[in-house]
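Hey,
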Amino acid sequence: MSFLRIILIAAAFIFIGILPVHAKDMIVKEPPKSLSKYYPPESKQSKWIQQMHKMSTHFGGVFVNLKEKDFENVDIHADKLVEEYKKTSEMVPEWEDYFDIKAAEAFAAAAKTHDIAQAGKASGKLGKTCGKCHAENEVSVWAKFHWPSFHKIKVTDPISEKEIEFDDYMGSISASFKGVTVNFGEGQYDRAAKALKIFKSRYMELKSTCSKCHATQDVKRFYVGQDADTAFAGLSQELDSEKPNPEKFWKNIGLLGKTGCKHCHLVHRTNSFIQEMWEK
């Protein structure tokens, strides 16, 4: 059997074993309370994800070194994988059934034969334990521990000058937006122009709100940047004219909606919905 064929067989076992997740397997449920002690604020470091990286590194290290015929490091990574796998299995009591210590030990033994095909075959059973846990918990863990919660953000409304919850602030932006579009659709251009000033003030304040998480100017202005400036300028120009052009008006409304609101929602809203469900 050629060396390339052996590598392909091993790779197939790896990917089949590690990634057996299908859409029907995905679950979104709140992670167990005991996991919280491995993430901020209870822990200074994200210890759980560190364990994931350790196991992944040692697992990958076995195959990297088998390919390079560095058998001394193959054995080191094999032993370290079992060590970290056992340690991880004891960290979250509610998840102990996801782990199969015998499968980890069998993989390590196969790796130490220095036969990449045997190691690939033995990786399948071990990989399935990882894949099952990921299918049932990975999305939830990322949503809870890796995404900041919008529900903890306070915003000072530039119109009322009152500090309000972020969700309430987004509601006020939506109401201001409706004031612009509804009045324009009714031909009430003076009212639409007045509503536009309120909407713009609230919308552009998001530059400050986004900076609570996004520190750099490029990221901060991704949704509230040049496209938004251009759209607001175009809207103001139409509403200040003697006879506003509906085509130009709605084009700029669409620019705000697609490059600002929609893009932000596509990135953040799903996790926000999940977090809100758990917080309630």
